[in-house]
Write a structure and sequence with these properties.
This protein has 256 residues and is an all-alpha fold. Helix content is 70%, strand content 0%. The protein starts with 6 loop residues before the first helix and ends with a helix.
Length: 256
């Protein structure tokens, strides 16, 4: 105790309560869990998104080679396009996860083992399959546009990656609970960032900046295709969380 404790006890202790209130310990533990959870969310979002981008860049020329297509167009995204995506998605969206509020059942969860890595508890698998899904969906839509002869195939891939990561960010707000359970608009900072990202995306497509980035304008149908891909990823992550909640509930019933 900082007030009633003796100087000797303070020097020998590992923790000193400044207000002599044991509730402070509970508040400190809760705050620590919020920080750790938000750190894991950011890592999960950033690593999965970058796995998707790496797969797009590496497998796009492989698709061209295996299909016998000319290798002149075997570059999925230009460096400036990747830089734009990293600033808009990994940067802004990732930072908005740092202000995610505490989940309702946070203090009822058992503590993490100190020896556990940051990818423990199944997060490594979640990062892997979400990254693969982002890469496959982007490659699929881009390759389909290219073989159909649509000149805007690169702009579609560029926009699909941005939209996919927006929906990925929404689905990653909780590892177990549905977005509709934790509150769709409970993280207003994230929604402000999403509005900014989605507001700047047309600037990259429909202004002279698009020429600088090497992008062609998209039609309304193209944009709807990108949104459909994002909704597909969002639904897949929500279904995984639903199955996870079912397994946890089943384990509790067996234990009871």
């Amino acid at each position: 105790m900082s007030i009633t404790g003796t100087d000797v006890s303070k020097e020998a202790s590992d923790t000193v309560l400044r207000d002599d209130n044991f509730a402070t310990i509970v508040a400190a533990v809760e705050e620590g869990r919020v920080i750790y959870d938000n750190l894991r969310r950011f890592v999960k979002f950033a690593v999965a998104g970058n796995i998707g981008k790496v797969l797009v860049m590496l497998l796009w020329p492989v698709l061209f080679f295996l299909s016998g297509l000319p290798l002149e167009a075997a570059v999925a995204l230009l460096p400036l396009q990747l830089l734009w995506l990293n600033l808009m998605t990994d940067g802004l969206l990732g930072l908005s996860m740092g202000v995610e509020p505490a989940e309702k059942n946070m203090m009822q969860r058992p503590p993490h083992t100190p020896t556990d890595g940051i990818f423990s508890g199944g997060m490594g698998w979640q990062v892997t399959w979400v990254g693969l899904a982002i890469g496959v969906l982007t490659l699929g839509v881009g390759f389909w546009y290219y073989i159909q002869g649509y000149a805007q195939w690169q702009a579609v891939m560029f926009t699909a990656l941005a939209v996919l990561q927006v929906f990925q960010a929404l689905a990653t707000r909780s590892n177990t609970e549905s977005l509709f359970t934790i509150g769709v608009f409970s993280n207003r900072v994230m929604w402000a960032v999403i509005a900014l990202v989605m507001g700047l995306q047309p600037v990259a497509l429909y202004t002279p900046l698009g020429v600088f980035l090497g992008l062609l304008p998209l039609t309304a149908i193209d944009l709807l295709v990108c949104v459909g891909l994002g909704l597909t990823l969002f639904a897949a992550v929500e279904v995984e969380k639903l199955l996870l909640r079912g397994r946890v509930a089943g384990s509790r019933r067996l234990a009871a």
